[in-house]
Automatic annotation (TrEMBL):
EC annotation from Swiss-Prot or TrEMBL: 7.1.1.-
Keywords assigned by UniProt, alphabetized: Cell membrane, Membrane, NAD, Quinone, Translocase, Transmembrane, Transmembrane helix, Transport, Ubiquinone
Pfam family, one: Proton_antipo_M
UniProt-recorded name of the protein: NADH-quinone oxidoreductase subunit N
Functional description taken from the UniProt entry: NDH-1 shuttles electrons from NADH, via FMN and iron-sulfur (Fe-S) centers, to quinones in the respiratory chain. The immediate electron acceptor for the enzyme in this species is believed to be ubiquinone. Couples the redox reaction to proton translocation (for every two electrons transferred, four hydrogen ions are translocated across the cytoplasmic membrane), and thus conserves the redox energy in a proton gradient.
NCBIfam families for the chain: NDH_I_N (TIGR01770), PRK05777.1-3 (NF004440)
Native organism: Sphingomonas canadensis
UniProt entry tagged with the keyword Zinc-finger: no
UniProt keyword Membrane, yes or no: yes
Subcellular location: Cell membrane; Endomembrane system; Membrane
Domain NADH:quinone oxidoreductase/Mrp antiporter transmembrane span(s) in chain numbering: 125-419
Catalysed reactions, semicolon-separated: a quinone + NADH + 5 H(+)(in) = a quinol + NAD(+) + 4 H(+)(out)
Amino acid sequence: MDYNAQLLMSLPELVLGAGGILLMLVAAWGGQASTRAVSLAAVAVLIGAGIALGGPASSGGEAFDGLYRADMFAAFAKALVYVAAGVSILIAPGFFQRTSGDDLRPEYPVLILFSAAGMGLMVSAGDLITLYVGLELQSLAAYVLASFMRRDARSAEAGLKYFVLGALASGILLYGISLVYGFSGTTLYAGIADAYAQGSSTGLLFGLVFVFAGLAFKISAVPFHMWTPDVYEGAPTPVTAFFASAPKVAAMAMAVRVAMEAMGPAVEQWRQIVVFAALASIILGSVAAIGQSNIKRLLAYSSIANVGFALIGLVAGSEAGVASVLFYMAVYIVMTLGSFLIVLQMRGADGQQVETIDSLAGMSRTRPGLALALAVFMFSLAGVPPFLGFFAKFAVFDAAVGAKLYLLAAVGIAASVIGAYYYLRVVKTMYFDEPAPAFEGRAGLVEGSLIFASAVVISFGMLLLPWLSGWTTAAAHSLF
């Protein structure tokens, strides 16, 4: 294939990489004064990368001798990543000015761009080495973002914990990759699938276990979830919103591609691992969230439970199952970003962030619009119809039933009832408890617009179901 055609397939990553390097130079020369310009330019770069998803980047097929895949599946996941990354950049200036006492530094949007470029490589990887390079590019940027508030002890602790546990997970993943390579003789997904199709040896089976263990850390699935609550609580709230959305989508898409393309013939082997991770994540996330008093920790355990629901679609191992995972993740990032946008508005009289659930008491009377929006997100996360979250859960359960996994679907539905308790507790606190001191300040134009748009999408998203279902079905079909 012509080399220029292959470069066109990877154009989104080229745009992000070139844009990130250029803006890094601007930040180095312009200093603090360039922050606003760099942030706006970074959003423009993300828009450019999104435009580049059309054409060869979404339908080109294999590039660079199978190392890279340009298909609808990757394009769908990248579109979600770019949206989440753009929102994380737009909401950062107000937070840092109010909370840290420092203006936002221009390195923040640059790190987001490099992280997004790494996530693009993750979802388009057709080879385990490409996967690992993308994973590390995303992770290295994320470690810095987690500890971005240098004088905040919680942020520094979050960055350190994320780095140490991330390094451990990378080691586990690398060991799995080395086992798979040793027993299959290749790191290309197609060659690995051929090796599994010929009969899974003990070495290949151990490689499969270690690879899925490393991937489980990146999606914060049980039992590799331990970093999530502490990092979500300690990291700056815009960074937490980013961690809870974009990397989750990228890691889930990466896991789906590895499971379907590289290890598709070994579906019965990895299905057992994924079933355990799905049920354990749903149950632990739901039960552990009940006793939380910090809203960011509650949303951290909520994200663990939501990953479990998405994994139910992967367990089905079918085209419908993959489509349900994509559908779920699309709805999930809207609900999550909307929830964290509300958390950003929780500020005391001193302008500092307030994170306790008790501080939401009586918000329906002091900030009715904000309370209504948060109630919409909580009801949707709980899976209450007619909100869009209900249809997302219905999709993954329907895929499980279609694969004759009736017990898995039944346990998942029962566990979702447990999860509904802590979501509804937040609504009860806002609408029925005695009012706590009202939050100070009002949402800016950008934040307010994003909250309104997210709430509208979640409330009336059922009108988008034919369009969204068609897109996810086409994306899943390209993987098969």
